[in-house]
Amino acid sequence: LKEKFNIDLTMKTTESKKEDQKNQKKGEDEEKKITFYSKFRYNEKYYNEIKTDKGYQFIVFDNNGNIEGVIPELTIPDNDKDYRVLPAPQITERKIDSILNNDEKSDSELIKFPGYPIEFTKPYDLFLEIKQFIHKYVELKPLDETLLAIYVIQASIFDLEKKFTFPLVHILGPYGRGKTRTLTVLYYLIPYSIFTDDIKSAAIKRVSQLYNPVLLVDEKGQMDQDLRAILNARYNKNAVILNANKEIQTGYSGIIAYRIPGPMVLAGREVFHDPAIESKSFQINMNFELTREDIPRELKGEIFEEFIKESEILRAKLMFFRIKYFKKINESLNTEPAWLKEYEQITEPRLYELLSSLSDILNVIPELENEITQIIDEQIKQNILVAQETPEGIVAKTFIEILKDDMNGKEYDRDEYEIDPITKYTFNGIEYTGIYLKAIYNQIGENYANRVGMLLSQLGLNTDRPRVEITYIKDGEEHKKTKRYRLVRLPPIKLLLSLFKRYDFEYINAMINLRKIGIIDVFRTIDLEQVKKSVDQLDQLDRLYIIYNNYSGLLKLKNYINNLYEKEYDKKRQEGISLESGQSDQLVQEYIENRIKILENTESIKEKKETKGVLDQFNQDEKISLESQKLTIENTKDLKYFKTSEYYTKEYFDDMGITLI
Length: 661
Known about the structure:
This protein is α/β, with parallel strands linked by helices and 661 residues long. The chain has 25 helices and 20 strands. A five-stranded parallel β-sheet has the order 9-10-13-8-14. It has a four-stranded antiparallel β-sheet with strand order 2-3-4-5, with no helix packed on it. Strands 15-16-20-17 form a four-stranded antiparallel β-sheet. Strand 6 and strand 7 (82-87) form a beta hairpin. It is globular and about 130 Å long.
């Protein structure tokens, strides 16, 4: 009995010790509040979750980018209970999943944490590596590859930048063009990213609080209106979501705020019906035929393993960039290149804000300046093409087209139009110019007819219902009658031009081309000396011809608007806003005549012939028609390759899908 008693006593003692240790640990935990975060700042130190050999831990660095070490957790003292801050766990279906799958490679992890920082030579080398990785696994246009590589780098530091806004990316394209593959590549590249086909508004608040992630959302057309409102808020750091909540915060209860801003890439087959999201997004159009055969159709086997390994290395390098370069970027956020300010004159404020964000990276990667200017030109055009497909864009584009038709003297069928679409009228004793509302109905179709009034109001356009006298023919005799019509009043010049900037592709494309020779705004005084200096630097005569035609077209538009706003423009002219017509014609001809004189002493018959040919074309009062330019090509449309003289630019043939050799 004694022997048995001693054994039983020993066992009970061991169990008691275990229970005591468990109770002690429980007591310590009860004295602290346990909370989870991936990224935060405390006492002038930055704590970022990374994946190490010992699991998920915090890497600690200071304001100067010095790494101070890696810790498993942080205790923060508080008046009530101290906080134990732990790295946020992976998102899983159940708790057991994180236990069973903890030995799997990162391809099974839903949040893509970076590893310990890996150094690189210079930021431009990192950019090239990222761009090469994107090019290797997905087919995109070259400028879109560059844009996404820049976006990946900027997304890695978005929460450390001292700025309020961060742009979104919207990928558009039909089925089977690589939208999902593009999102997959970005998902594995960007630290703290999450890829989802569907995300609920309640989940996004908690995900944002835990991880402050970069969101990649596939088939965004499935999102409801509430979620669109929340995603709109990701653009601005000030935006918060307020919820009723039982959580008590030091004297306050019932209300809690969630911050959700951050980068987001959306992919879908059609534009948003919410233009606010589109205006905050870089646009990537994947509506083109895929031709590259070097891209793996599936990521599997050895290709899969290589993809995972390369992406892990790049995420670790992006972590190094985050730590070492965020301070330098913040110190020079207000330093913008002089050429960037020129775009402010030809774009809407929101679009300019979007484009200027690209310059943030120039101060650490100056080698990207040329590519960024090309991206800006392309994004301005893409933004307009997408804006034209929104409900507001459809109405605005119709409004602009009616003005341009009137400018070009278009005649209308009286069976369809009772009066000319544009007319002068008097309302409340004031004379206005307006567009017959029925003319807009006729253009946009029945789908939008019942919403036109609301859409016009959103565009800042007012409607009136004055009495208008019209003339009609009956029994061979001319009669007059007065009838009430609904007319859309032409807005002030500034608002009208803002509609052209936002919704008229022809206008904005002309302004982009004119910027190349120093003409920033055709409606204001032009510095002729700057224009001459810019023209002297141009050596592509066909490009000069394109610019000349854009200039002539805008002069025609300017003169037309002058007539519409004669009284208002007289006042503007007195303020120094003027432009002599014919200056462009004179400048261009002087430039080419000088070229001819220079070439008189050269042996190059080819250059003489080309220069004289361009001059002859300048002397024509109208553009060469597109059909005549395509005449030679029509006979070779079945050929994959086409060899031509060097008169037209490569871009001219690229636009028609012709490859030059």
